[in-house]
Amino acid sequence: MNRLLNKILALFGKKHEQTEQTEPEQMKFLVVGLGNIGAEYQGTRHNIGFTVVDTLVGEAGATFTTQRYGDVAQMRVKNQQLVVLKPSTYMNLSGEAVRYWAQKEKIDLNHILVVVDDIALPFGAIRLRGKGADGGHNGLKSIDQLMASQAYARLRFGVGNDFPRGAQVDYVLGHPTAQELAILPERAQLACEAIKAFCLSGLDFAMTHYNNK
Questions:
Q1: Active-site residue among 16, 46, 137, 175?
Q2: Which of 8, 94, 184, 189 could bridge 139 with an S-S bond, Cβ 3.0-4.6 Å?
Q3: 46 an active-site residue?
């Protein structure tokens, strides 16, 4: 009787150990950096979304390839798969690229994160939100319309607002100052850490740990 009981306990222990060692569920995320294509827009404030996802993909040793509606890179963060997109549709049609790749890769709305420039924040400040209005940003406006929802995560990267009245367009399509460029790599790196936290631990965790840094 004791021998039979020992066998049962041993078998139960092995199954329990296998259950504990099971890896977390693998999920797929769409990370979108907003910007405009073309040499004249490269490195501008309005292209800060491109800058952040370039950093993310470069650190992972992945590469972008030109595909439909944009440049796309596939990478992993631990057990999670990331599809990283830089739309080639120009800013005001960004929703076409986001909708296409979300459908193609079968990615739920709550697994989409959009990186966007924001003049309401000081340069380099980041804020994660799970939903919200477009705030007058044409890229977000296009995504809202074509995804028929505002309930997707966005990482707002501050570009400041040091411009006179009526000069907003010239400002966002201009280049950061030397002082801003000096801190850009560090702040872009922080944004990448926030993106990884979102994919690995969820929006609430990422907001709590990165919104005040």
A1: 46
A2: 94
A3: yes
